[in-house]
Amino acid sequence: MAKMRQPKDATWDNLRHAIYVRQAIEAGLWDSQAGRTLDVKEVRAKFGQEI
Predict the structure, then answer these.
(1) CA gap 51, 43 in Å, rounded
(2) Residue 13: which of 25, 21, 24 has the closest Cα?
(3) Using alpha carbons only, how large is the chain's radius of gyration in Å?
(4) Per-residue pLDDT, 6
């Protein structure tokens, strides 16, 4: 895992947000690698948004 650099004036809220974003991205990457994703067409069809 790469280091997360924050500015010297970063707050705990800034750090929490950075951790949350990183975890969300990593979870998405793991889901993608495991084949747990949907094609845009499938999502649009599911919500009645056919192109």
Answers:
(1) 11
(2) 21
(3) 17
(4) 86
Q: How far apart are CA 29 and CA 40, in angstroms?
A: 16
Determine contact, residues 4/18, Cβ cutoff 8 Å: yes
d(CA 47, CA 38): 13
Token pair of 14 as six digits: 């800034």
- What are the pLDDT tens digits along the chain (51 aa)? 567 788 899 999 999 999 999 999 999 999 999 999 999 999 999 998 876
Instruction: Evaluate if pTM is beyond 0.70.
Output: no
Residue with tokens 């009645």: 48
